[in-house]
Every structure is written in C-alpha cells, then in structure tokens.
Amino acid sequence: MSSQLGQLFRISTWGESHGGGVGVVIDGCPPRIELSEADIQRDLDRRRPGQSEIVTPRDEKDEGRILSGVFEGKTLGTPICIAVTNKDARPESYREMETAFRPSHADFTYEAKYGIRNWQGGGRASARETIGRVAAAVVAKKVLAQFSPALEIVAYVKTIHELVADVDVERVKFEQVEANIVRCPDAAMAERMIEFIKQVRSDGDSVGGVIECVVRGVPAGLGEPVFDKLEAELAKAMLSLPATKGFEIGSGFAGTRMRGSEHNDAFRMEGERVRTTTNRSGGIQGGISNGEPIFFRVAFKPTATIFKPQQTVTTTGEDTELQARGRHDPCVLPRAVPMVEAMTALVLCDHALRQRAQMG
Amino acid sequence: MSSQLGQLFRISTWGESHGGGVGVVIDGCPPRIELSEADIQRDLDRRRPGQSEIVTPRDEKDEGRILSGVFEGKTLGTPICIAVTNKDARPESYREMETAFRPSHADFTYEAKYGIRNWQGGGRASARETIGRVAAAVVAKKVLAQFSPALEIVAYVKTIHELVADVDVERVKFEQVEANIVRCPDAAMAERMIEFIKQVRSDGDSVGGVIECVVRGVPAGLGEPVFDKLEAELAKAMLSLPATKGFEIGSGFAGTRMRGSEHNDAFRMEGERVRTTTNRSGGIQGGISNGEPIFFRVAFKPTATIFKPQQTVTTTGEDTELQARGRHDPCVLPRAVPMVEAMTALVLCDHALRQRAQMG
Amino acid sequence: MSSQLGQLFRISTWGESHGGGVGVVIDGCPPRIELSEADIQRDLDRRRPGQSEIVTPRDEKDEGRILSGVFEGKTLGTPICIAVTNKDARPESYREMETAFRPSHADFTYEAKYGIRNWQGGGRASARETIGRVAAAVVAKKVLAQFSPALEIVAYVKTIHELVADVDVERVKFEQVEANIVRCPDAAMAERMIEFIKQVRSDGDSVGGVIECVVRGVPAGLGEPVFDKLEAELAKAMLSLPATKGFEIGSGFAGTRMRGSEHNDAFRMEGERVRTTTNRSGGIQGGISNGEPIFFRVAFKPTATIFKPQQTVTTTGEDTELQARGRHDPCVLPRAVPMVEAMTALVLCDHALRQRAQMG
Amino acid sequence: MSSQLGQLFRISTWGESHGGGVGVVIDGCPPRIELSEADIQRDLDRRRPGQSEIVTPRDEKDEGRILSGVFEGKTLGTPICIAVTNKDARPESYREMETAFRPSHADFTYEAKYGIRNWQGGGRASARETIGRVAAAVVAKKVLAQFSPALEIVAYVKTIHELVADVDVERVKFEQVEANIVRCPDAAMAERMIEFIKQVRSDGDSVGGVIECVVRGVPAGLGEPVFDKLEAELAKAMLSLPATKGFEIGSGFAGTRMRGSEHNDAFRMEGERVRTTTNRSGGIQGGISNGEPIFFRVAFKPTATIFKPQQTVTTTGEDTELQARGRHDPCVLPRAVPMVEAMTALVLCDHALRQRAQMG
To answer: A3 vs B226: CB contact, 8 Å cut-off?
Structure first.
C-alpha cells in the first residue's frame, strides 16, 4: 500500500495539503504506554511551518488531536488516529497550477498516474503529509524507550550547499541541534548557514544539503537479513521523504575508494561486550545491528519552488512560463531534521517488535 | 517478512550457501508467459562464481530447475518455485568461523540475533542467496516486456576504487557492458579496472566501487506516492544487496550543492509528449516516473574477506586473530551488475502490476 | 494488522464506541470515482442506531465526513479518510463495567490481552466499529460497478430464532429487503419476526438468527486459489463481524448429508455461456467464482446484553452479579444486514483489483 | 498473495499435483527449535494417499526433504523450505480433462481465471497442495509448544453423511482419533462409518461429513480484535481447504435458536482463574481467546470425483458426458483430519507470535 509503512508498528497516513486535514492511523502499538496530545505537539512544533525566519511563513499551528486508541492517558493497543486540521490554506495562490505543471514537483506525474490531482498546493505530495509521520514517531519513540532506555536518535543538518558542519557522531546531542533555527549542532557553521539561507531566499532561489542521523544505544541483533535489512529499510524510509535524492550509511560512497584491509571493522572485546575498533559499517552488518552507533546521511535537493519564472508546459500540452506565488521554504533541511528522526524511529520501532515476535 | 519482496509480484527466497541449496518462490506472476529453464540460466550464468579470472573460483554451475508454476512452457499464474542445488560446497574451509567472527561479515550479528548460525560459509548472508533474486528477475523482465516493450534496464560498473568510467546514460547498451569481464561499458577503463583488480587480489586485498543503472522506456505514472515512492523502493532493493553502502538517484549527493534555479528540470513539449530539458530528477518526481530515463548509483564496499590476518574475537569472548581461507571475490562488482539489474526489474515489475490494479 | 482488511483495496478502521469517534482510511481506491458524503450517508443510515422501534434507541446521526482523498467530487486515488463523531455517548451507563466483566462480551478477553480496556461501552469491540466498514463499502460498491455493472449484492434476514423466511436467491431484490424494519424480504414472515423481537425485548431478553446474502452478476474468474479462496475470504470477513458464530456457502452443512452424485453441479451450455444445472457450489469452485450466483449464510448469536441479572466476576477476581443498563439491540440482525452486504462488497472489490493486477 | 498465509509465521506453498513436486517455504520461524525430517514425516504419513483401504490408492510416499533453514538439527530463524517430489503421477488418466471440465471441480474456474491450466490431475487445486501446509504445521506445533506446553489440538471426524459420532470435546484424545482409519474417536460409530464409506465406494459414489476440532490449553488473550479475530482467521483457514462448505464455532448455527439468557456464558472464579460455566462462545470472545477450549466444526462436501457418467461441457463449448478414471478418495474426511489440525496450528502459531510482538 502506498500510504502504509511498517510490518508490526504500521502507520497509515492520509490527507492533502488543502482539504479537510492530514493525519495518521497507527496499528499495532503496544498497550499501556502513556501518551498525550502535548507529547505529540512537541514534535509537531519542530516540523511546523512558521517556526522561524528561515522557513515558510504559512501559519499553521498543526494541532494534533488524538481521536482513538488512548484511554485515560494510556494507549489501548487499538488503532491510534491522530488528526490535524488544515487552517491557513490559501488555494487561490495555486490557481496557476490548475493548468500548468510546476517544474520538479509532482504535478505532472500525479496527473500522469491518476488522471486527476488536487492542484491546490502539493496535495498528497505536500510535505504536510509528513505531519502524520512525525506524530506517529512520537509514539514509536515511546515504544523504543521500553525496549532500549538508552537508545538515542539525533538527526541534524550536516551540510547546506557547500557549507559543511563538523560533528562528532559519537557525542552530538539533541540539545545542540535544537539550539539554533537551522538545526546544525556546529554553532559557528549554523550561523553561516542561516545567513546563507537568508541570502538565497532574498535571491528568490532555494538550496539543499545533507542531513546526518546517528542512533546510539541500539542493541545488537535488530534488523532482518535479506530484503528487510535494517539499512535497506532506513534507505526506503528516508527516500520516501519529499525532496530526497540519496542515502548512505557508514563509510557510504567514500568507502568505495578504500581497500578491504582499510575498510574492515576489526572486532575486539571491551569487557564482556564485543565492539569494533572502527565503524565503517555504520553499526549494521548483514542487515543486522551490531551494537555500535548507526549513522547515515540523506541528500535533500534544493526546494523545487523558487520565485523566478520557469519554463514549463500546460495540462493541455503547450509550452508556457510559470512563476510561483504562495509561501515556501527556501531550504527544507531545518524542518526535515525532525522528519529524518521520525522515520528512523518508525523503522527501529517496527524492527524492535519484529525482533520480539520472532526471538521473544 | 525478512525474505520476501514485492506486493503483487512477490518473491520469497530461501537457502544457505552450504546446505540443500538455494531458491525462490514467485507468487502473483501473470499466466501464459513463456518461460524455460534456459531463459533463467542465461542470467544465472552472469552472476555465477567461476565465470572469469577476476571472480571467485568456486565451481558452481548454478543450474536452475523450475519445480512448479509452469506447464508446457508457459506460466500457470500459480507460484513458480526455482531451485539450485549447492554442489561445490567446502564447509571445511570455514571451520575457523565456527569459533571466530569474521570482521565486517554477518557472523557476529547473526549470532547476536538468532543465537545460532550456519557457520559454513556465509549461510543466509552469503551472496548465493541472490541466485533466487536473479532467477525471479528473469520472470519479472518478461512481465515488464508485456507492459512496456521498449523498457530497457542497463546496469554497469561505473567506478572501481578511484577508477571512474565515462558512460552516457542515454545511450549505453547491454552489449557494451557484457563485452568485458568487469562489466564496464567504457572499454579502455574496463581494461585498467581488470588489471587493478588482479593486482588487488595478488595483494590478498579487496576493493569496492559504484554500479550505475539506467532504465529507459519507463512509461510515466509508475510508482506510488508517500512511502512506496519508486526511488524509495529502488533504494531499499539495492541496499538489500550484500556489501552495499549507499544509493543515489539523478543528481544525488552532488545535487545538494546546486541551487533550485540550476537543479529544477524545466518541462517542454516534444511533439505530443511532455519532456524535461534536464534530468536531475533521475526520471522520478514525487515518487512517480515521469517518462525520462531513471538512473541511479549504488555504492559497494570492498569485499570483507581478505587474505590477511585480522584482529577479531571468538564466540566465547576472547580476542584472537583470523585469516581467511576459501574462495572469494576480490571485488564483487562484476557479479553484482546482474544483481542490480535484477533488483531493478523486480521493483518495476511489482509497480507495473500495482499500477494496473489501481488504474486499469 | 488487526484493524486492516484487503490486499489492494485496503481499509483501516479506527475508533472506540466512546471517545473521539470512529472512522476508516481506504488505501488503494482507483481515482476519478464520483463520491459524496451523501452517498456514504445512505448506507450509514441503514446501520445507525435509533432507526426503528426494534433496535437500540442510542441517538446517533452517524454523519460521515470525508477528510481526504476526494477533490471536486471525485476520488484522487490517495487515501480516503472518513470520520464519524461519537455524540450520544453516555459513559456513566457503563460504570459497573469498570469493575465487572459482562458475560459473553469482550470485556474479559480485552483485559486479558491488553491489560487495559476502555470500559465505556464496548470500546473497540463495539458494533460502532463497523461504521468504518459500511462507509468504505460504499466506495467499494462504486468500484465494483465499474468492473461489473450488473453485479448486485442482496443481504437479508433469513431466520430469527426459529422463524424461517422463504426467499428465492435468484430473484430477491434490495427493495423487498428494505421494505420492512427487520430487513426480511418475506413480508409475512417479517411481520412475525418484528412481533417476536418486540416480545423478546419486553422480556428483557435477546435473540439471534441467520442472515443470507446473494451476489448475482459476478463474472467467472474472481477469487484466488489456495489460501485466499473467495469463500475463505468471505468466511473471514463475516466472522470478523461482531456476534457471528458460523458461515456456510452453497449447500453448506446440509450438503454433508448428500452423496457426490446428488451434490455435483453438472455443467451445460446456455448459448455461449457455461452454466451449471444446480448450484450447490454457491457460485464458487476451487476458490474462484464460476459466474453463478454466490450465496452464503451467516449465523448471529443472540445479543449478549440482556436486561436480566447475570452471574459474573469482578476485575479483582470475585464472583458477583451484573445487570445491564444502557441502550441495546434486542436482536442485531436488522442492523447487521448492511454490515454483511458491506463485508461482501469489500471482499469482492479487493479481489476485482487483484484479478486486474495479475490478469489485466 | 494467493499462496501465502500468516503475518509472522508465514507459509508460502507451491506446486501442482503433476509436475516437479510440491512444497512450502516457512518464513519467520523462531530459531533454535529442534526439527528433523522424521518429525515432518509423521504428519505427512497421516495425510498421504494409500494409507488405508478407504482412501485413494495413489502410491505416494510423500517424503519431505528440508532444503534450508535447519542446521545441525535446529532451526536457524531463516526460511525453511520443505519439498516433496511427485512420484506416482499418471497424467494419462486425466487426458479427458484436457478438453472437458469435471463437474464441481476447479477445472472450469481455473480456465476462466487464468486462460491456462495444468489439466493433469487437479494441478494447483489438488489436495496435494496441502502437503506443504501439513509440513509447515509440524513446525508451527513445535513453536506453539514453547508458548503453551499444555496446548493440545485434537481434530476428528464428527459426522459422515448422516452418521454422527458422540464425542466429548473436553476429553477426546489424539490416540482415540488415530485408533481407526476413519479417524473418528467414537469407536463403534467409526466401524459403521468405515463400512458405509466402503459401500459408497463400491457404488462408484462419494460422501462428505463434518470434522470437529478442539484446542485445549490456549491461554487467554490470543487473537486480535476487528478483522483478524481468532475465529475469523480459523474460518478462513478452514474454508481454504479443498471441499469445505462451512464453518461454525461454539454454539454455531444452533446457537441462533437460543435466547441470550440461555446462550450467555456466565463467568465464575475457579481458584485464581476466570472460567465460564458454559462454553457457547467456543473459547473465543470478541475475537480473543478466553482460556476455555476452542472448538469448531468444518463441513466437507462429498468428493467431486465419482465413477459415474456426468453431464458437462468441453473447453470449446459443447455439451458432453464425462466419466472419471484415476484414483480418488470416496470420502476426504479421514485424510482431512490432519489438514484441519494443521490449519489450526498455523493460525494459532501466527497469533502467538503476533501476541508476543505487541504485548511482550
């Protein structure tokens, strides 16, 4: 199913950017987990528009309401539906999109696939769809905390265009990430990034970058061999986010320029625990976590919406020119950080339940 | 399920590198498609060991037998089971692995996960598991040919270590790839790559690289929005191959260093057809094919097995040293080319059926 | 997943009887199908409480709101979320259930499974959960109409307790069913059933019966061999409705008392069409429809809630006595008729899409 | 998928009655469970043809070979492939079926669905397909034994035609069932059944009946609310067996003729344990086991193959007459007993793993 993710902790998102709203249904959540709307709101606030001067000014409070599956503050084990109403929708800003396809958006491909599309905003392809993912991930993180209290997911902006942050995956902390509006834990570089994004916006242009994510405290043994390798599931989850173009784990593409004798992670005992001396594997071997930190990088392209005239075609097959109006992010990365974190939590939670099902 | 892939054209692989054999069951295949064991053998021969002087000398003919689902040379629409017997297994070469974990292999993680493992060879983590994938993909390619007779999948070695081939994704042909044993369509570079791999082997070392794959002739509209985006499914499929560390599509990681105004693919009419002037998107927008060539790259790490002593630990928790014996590829890429092609075919075939289910 | 049904036309229901509301998300619906809230309301009204003097007086309008997946009156091909708010909830009527388990309800088993339950009404086990099914089936019936315009699903009350209606499965019409409040197309028997149910209610007791359903106009070829046989899927769908205890198709249990020579359905040509002279098979052979009417029967037990004191136990393990308050159906069958019809439509729609996926 | 069953303990069967063989792949099996080919053979022998004078004389040893997933006598946690070769195939006995459809078989519907069929025997619709199920269930029973050592599944022939056995579901034992060739634990009635089946065979006719199955020792809490109710999953599993026409649990169809005050199962404490005074529910309430014995009945029609001339049509649309040759069961029930037992084990095992996944 196109709108479902997970084998056991399964989420189904629904909704378009303009219309009744967006939301998610979570099936398979363990019972008796404390959950409130406030818990969910904390993360929705981290992804919502209008949160800072470098993101889109669309004014949505994105208030998540829990419609089912929770009773007296605890999960029931039954489906949890969380809904957010669309409030600051301005479909009139998209009137041109009714008849012309925005370059590098999904307008043309939705039309080609379905023969119909909601042209008011991105419809289903809008990043508003990720609200359901972020809300569900709040629950996933609570489930994970029961399995591995020490488990810690930290995602952050690693690069913006050519600006590269210096970050230590072993030590970077959530608080450092949240300390600035671009969500880069290298404070000095964060300032340069913010200035750069403002400059790009004033040019009517947009810019991309790389988000890195590290997960520490994952027990060895999580993930499945063959098709549902942990890195494969993470890759899919990340590439399912809007605007992504690449994924690499551990040594990644750079590792292809090493020899085996340089690349292999030697094992050594650290007390009772098997560790590796290096971590080119990125914490996963044969699709299964080895207990070392899992870290990976996700490439985000520059936002497709820019405020310059662009060549395109109409729905009736004529060449034309289009200039965006409306409200848009000059750079999606600051708001994508909680999305990457959310997708990571969703994948790990599903695999924790899968592991428990098979291995007890 | 860890050993299943696909929603509608669903494959289930089974088997270990040492044991009764390996194989695949394909469920959901359309009926009345001509299929013979010879069809399957052609691709199995392209991935089998012992095929050239730069791959492992393990002598397996890998003869695929069709056990069900085919009658009088045609598919019945019922499950197709294809099995290959393991013949040249030499478990005694792996005796050390019973008590020590090979660095950067899956020995330790399988033990951590299952509390048991088949230490004779890679077991389930062996690349022999991909036999079932390659066999199933022969069927997938036949199904795809019914949907899109012009559809063409070409995978090839793009880089080995620091050696980079010059290839035009719009024109590269299967025959150019198969013209040399390293499967690089840049003939001059192919020779250098072959020499380099031989050198690495004689050093007792190993080396990695990047495989690129292009799919031409994909109709617009294939792929699903949200979680099962076509690039997300391809990413998962590729990262499910042994030894992979990264995936990027279209502009990939390099695209993060462009501005939106440079990166966007303008639309233009070409006769009746909507085309793009550039193809940074890599043929997919919003998770759905736009009719342009789909192309992507997959990073393969250097083979974990090297013929040098390496530091590791025993299954009982003591530091030790291990040196591989047995037969291994100094570089997996030449044999991984048909695997990348196979995974591409499997993903596209599944999405072709999904598209037909929903859209007719 | 416990709350999902269907491979390709997949529904996910959510919600408890007391709480934010109930609803459904439909994933996989074909695009460009006309759909309005009025369409959905027609069937919701047929299952809603308070519709007649022989059902529960709980006063719910059950107004279905479409939150996503529809644009300008047509389906988009994206998930359709339909929600109904709980309005006339009276949790105080259930206060005793907080500490005692109602006999033959799901109170005890939910507690045993989850260690928590929403004791206000039936929670997730309430028949209110079927609102999402009925709403989704409105969409399913529209999809089916595109595949088979002649397809017709007619469900009706066949027996109440020992009262058996005389109905001809070849000819019975929807209008005859809807002509009376008990939904029995045998008008004379319907009157007796209504009187009987009133009598049972005045006794503070409850009663069950059998619903029969016939589907005419199903093309031959629908359904899958092996596990997803059409009758197997129907059996599961029916047994997933609250209060059901049995399912039989065609000759059913009575057929076990025939010999093969009596039971077999001989084939004969009727013009160009292959027909059978009898229909003991109930329209399905080998799991696949043969073009004859599909008909089956579903057993519904007497409603568990009765207004007499009953022996039970408390949540803390003491014997006690419980007498129900609140509002309840003395007989679920009149309102279950649209549920049986809905489940039939959902199964057939899913199989129509599956058939198209594999066979084109 | 048509040939797959189970969410977590997932089996994929493959194979036709005439061809390379039949088998199964089990994915999701827990590791470190002792498993040998001898274990599997015991149950295959109980379903194999030629086992007694009242079943088909087709001479198949049905020797199950484990091709993967087991190492040194224990499961690895990876897919277990079990294969059986077809040996005593006599396709020439089926030559007439190439051009004519057998009444009440799947010949016509397979042709209608796929436009092709293996006319040598029943192909995929043959009861030989159930070999894979029975083999997989051997593994399922071993998994269940880890969850609930006291769990006991006993299936048996309850009726043949109008002959009804007297059996106490609380006490009936496996040994009583296996004590005679018709598998009816009422020894006196078993003799009459055997004589009756012999008589029917000598008439060239066939006969059906009802199999009852009881599961004792199921812990409370197994099963899922809503669509995957335990009885719904059992109903599907049973109706997926060839020749089945009905399923009822607990009070079943007879329960529809009771009042709620008679039908409800009062709760009472038995020491620390919550019990019910009656068991009309059949051990399941709201889709979830309550700890009482689960018992249900399955209707099997008379075997479709009879040795009398029957009216039918040819594949080219002409009326004709057909008389069966070949080897067939005059009554499927004795061999169906291990199949019902197997399907029960498969459903319970899957739900045990699902329960562990969500609840720990």
So the answer is: yes
| Residue extents of the structural domains in chain C | 4-359
Query: Which residues sit opposite A157 in a β-bridge?
Result: A211
pTM, to two decimals? 0.98
Question: CA-CA distance, B330 to B159, in Å (whole number)?
Answer: 15
The tokens for D329 are 């069961």
Phi, psi angle pair for A86, to nearest 5°? -80, 125
In this prediction the ipTM stands at 0.98
Among C108, C240, C267, select the one facing D103 at the smallest CB separation. Answer: C267
Chain B residues near residue D121 by CB distance under 8 angstroms: none
Is the pLDDT at B26 greater than 70? The verdict is: yes
Task: List chain B residues with CB under 8 Å of A265.
Answer: 103-104
CA–CA distance, C115 with A76 (Å, rounded to integer): 9
Nearest to D136 by CA among D212, D237, D232, D223: D237
Three-state DSSP class for residue A15: strand
Contact A208 B274 (CB under 8 A): no
Measure the CA–CA gap between D83 and C144, rounded to whole angstroms.
Answer: 39
Q: What is the DSSP letter of B297?
A: E
Give the closest residue to B121 by CA, choosing from B159, B164, B173, B86. Answer: B86
Find chain B residues with C-beta within 8 A of A130's C-beta: none
| Chains sharing 3 or more CB pairs under 8 A with chain A | B, C, D
CA count, 13 A, side-chain hemisphere, B303:
28
pLDDT-derived band at A1, boundaries 50, 70, 90: low
CA C240, CA C298: separation in Å to the nearest integer? 11
Chain-chain contact of C359 with B225 (C-beta, under 8 angstroms): no
Q: How many CA within 13 A on the CB side of residue A259?
A: 14
Pair of tokens at residue D274: 């919550």
| DSSP one-letter string for D173-219 | -HHHHHTSTT--SSHHHHHHHHHHHHHHHHTT--B-EEEEEEEE-PP
| Statement: residue C190 has pLDDT above 90 | yes
The Cα C104–Cα B154 span in angstroms is 62
Please indicate whether, in this complex, the C-beta atoms of D360 and A30 are within 8 angstroms of each other.
Answer: yes
Task: Give CATH superfamily name and number for B4-359.
Answer: Chorismate synthase AroC (3.60.150.10)
Task: Tell which residue, D137, B307, B124, has the closest CA to residue A225.
Answer: B124
d(CA C222, CA B76) in angstroms, rounded, equals: 16
C-beta of residue C77 within 8 angstroms of C-beta of residue C33: no
SS3 B128: helix
**Residues B275-329 pLDDT 10s:** 999 999 999 999 999 999 999 999 999 999 999 999 999 999 999 999 887 778 9
For A271, list phi and psi in degrees, rounded to 5: 65, -125
Q: What is the pLDDT of residues D229-265, one digit of tens each?
A: 999 999 999 999 999 999 999 999 999 999 999 999 9
Cα–Cα dist D25/D66, whole Å = 10
Segment A228-256 mean pLDDT: 98
CB C23 within 8 A of CB C84: yes
pLDDT at C88 over 80: no
Query: Cβ contacts (< 8 Å) between A225 and chain D: which residues?
Result: 78
Query: Crossing angle, helix C230-239 and helix C333-359, to 10 degrees?
Result: 150
Contacts (Cβ under 8 Å, ≥6 apart) of D260: C104, C205, C206, C207, C302, C303, C304, C305, C306
Backbone angles phi, psi at C359, to 5 degrees: -105, -10
Q: Other CB atoms closer than 10 Å to residue A150's CB: what's the count?
A: 9
> Which one of B8, B288, B358 makes the best mutation probe of the C interface by having the most chain C beta carbons within 10 Å?
B358
Whether A259 has a pLDDT exceeding 70, the answer reads: yes
Q: Do C4 and A10 touch (CB under 8 A)?
A: yes
Reading the block at residue B268, the tokens are 């233009």
Residue C53 makes CB contacts below 8 A (sequence gap 6+) with: C181, C198
